[in-house]
Amino acid sequence: MAEKQFLKLGDLKPAPGSRPKRQRIGRGHGSGMVKTGGEGGKGQTVRSGGGKGPAFEGGQTAWARRLPHRRGYSQKARDRGHFGGTVAVVSLRRLANWDAAVEITPEALRERGVIKGEIDAVKILGAGEAVALPKGLRLRDVLFSQSAREALQAAGAQLEDLPVSS
What we know:
Blueprint: H1 63-66, H2 80-83, E1 87-91, H3 106-111, E2 121-125, E3 138-144, H4 146-154, E4 158-161
Parallel strand pairs: 1-2, 2-3, 3-4
């Protein structure tokens, strides 16, 4: 008869690589963990959660404190990172071969690979010279430059303006 093998508590061990060897600090220059032992310098930098916040500007008066002292934010001193929107720009030339049966919207432009990435709006700019556009184009939820608007209206396109928020 073959003997049954039983698992014993003494035979248990973790899977290879699941428990890496701990870093031994303060054990000579060759270890790479000398002097401060991975803790950085003294004072503010060594404390948990210490350091300078994202709004710190090297000691100069911070952006939020340089604003005119009014309620809310000053539109004169605003920065593009916090307040600006991203607008995808499409040339009128890109619409020259567009199928007139398909309505031109930001979603349709994205599906056809004309625009990429996260955007807040789409703006169509004029081509500079005359572009032959298909008859009966329909545009919705897009912004236009003055020259693009005139060229599209001359081609008989239906323009549905994007509501402008104040």
